[in-house]
Amino acid sequence: MFMMSVCVCVYECMYTKLGYAGNTEPQFIVPSCIAIKESAKVGDQAQRRMMKGVDDLDFFIGDEAIDKPNYATKWPIRHGIVEDWDLMERFMEQVIFKYLRAEPEDHYFLLTEPPLNTPENREYTAEIMFESFNVPGLYIAVQAVLALAASWTSRQVGERTLTGSVIDSGDGVTHVIPVAEGYVIGSCIKHIPIAGRDITYFTQQLLREREVGIPPEQSLETAKAVKERFSYVCPDLVKEFSKYDTDGSKWIKQYTGINAISKKEFTIDVGYERFLGPEIFFHPEFANPDFTQPISEVVDEVIQNCPIDVRRPLYKNVVLSGGSTMFRDFGRRLQRDLKRTVDARLKLSEELSGGKLKVSAYGMVGCRNEKCVFCCRSPQSRLLDTYDGFLLILSHSKQPKALQSVWCECVTACN
Question: Which CATH superfamily is domain 148-193+294-352 in?
Answer without folding.
Answer: ATPase, nucleotide binding domain (3.30.420.40)
